[in-house]
TrEMBL record:
Topology with respect to the bilayer: Multi-pass membrane protein
InterPro entries found in the cross-reference section: MetI-like, MetI-like_sf, UgpAE/MalFG_permease
Pfam families, alphabetized: BPD_transp_1
Designated name of the protein: Arabinogalactan oligomer/maltooligosaccharide transport system permease protein
Basic and acidic residues composition bias: residue spans: 12-24
Keywords: Cell membrane, Membrane, Transmembrane, Transmembrane helix, Transport
The ABC transmembrane type-1 domain, residue ranges: 114-327
GO CC terms of this entry: plasma membrane
Organism this protein belongs to: Streptosporangium sandarakinum
Keyword Secreted in record: no
Amino acid sequence: MATSTGRVTGTARDRAAGADDGARGRGGPRKAGPFRRATSQYWYAWAMVAPVIVVTAVLIGWPLVRGVYLSLTDATEATMGRTIGVNVIPSTYEFVGFGNYVDILTSGVFWEKLAWTVIWTVACVALHYGIGLGLAMMLNRRLRFRSFYRLLLILPWAIPGFVAAFIWRYLYNSDFGVINAMLRAAGLGGVGWLDDPTTAKIAVIAVNVWVGVPFMMVALLGGLQSIPAELYEAAEVDGATPMQRFRHITIPGLRTVSSTVVLLGTIWTFNMFPLIFLITGGGPGSATEILVTYAYREAFTGIRNYSGSAAWGVIILLLLVVMALVYRRALRRQGEVW
């Protein structure tokens, strides 16, 4: 009897479940999707993030879309719409497709500027990381006046970029600069730091290293302090030399931090417009001009070529995106999560 009752009850339950499923299939209440659940459960977070999304879309998204569109036209100062007094002159530029990109990539100027930009970026980032790591390891030790040294070494990062550029431009002055004054005091001749292509390149690299080392130092110092001291103690007990401890403990322990700061440093240095523009103006001639300064010059000097400048900007963006993707893939192959 119990078995029969159980079967009847089970059958009734199955029929009820089937009827409920049928009702849902015919337009009954459905289970909310993941996006709807997230918005209903975390509506406050979405409300807080919404203004940031809107501002970012307005300040970054719209100029980016506009720039990509202009890069596909022949817009120049002569063909752009403008208002002179009460007269409104309409735009006369036309869509030309990828013509600007073809002109840029087939010109020797692009490859010349790209080569110097790569040299500039690699040299600066390598010096940033090497000097920053050395200073971080020094400050990670017990040292008298360590707080004072930290404050002193972080000052270049705290100084605004344009202020640093003007200070160094004065230091490099051929006639009144402090550097040449020190050389003359030592019995050596003055150097025209910003007058020769080679010395001008060395000069801007030195300034960028001076500005960028504090960031690397602070980031790597934080990474060093996160490595357990017990690892170094155990390695020292086992007889590991300082170089072996550095190679097998410090470098692997800093791998995650290093991958992040190297990527950020590469992007920032690749686009380091203020220092080069304010110190050398891209000169002498165009010896120190990198891709971003050339793009600026296309848009704001001479006959302003807005479409060409926009195409340069899009190419720079694509180069950085490709570099970041390749870098990310290389990290994944090494087992890093990024």
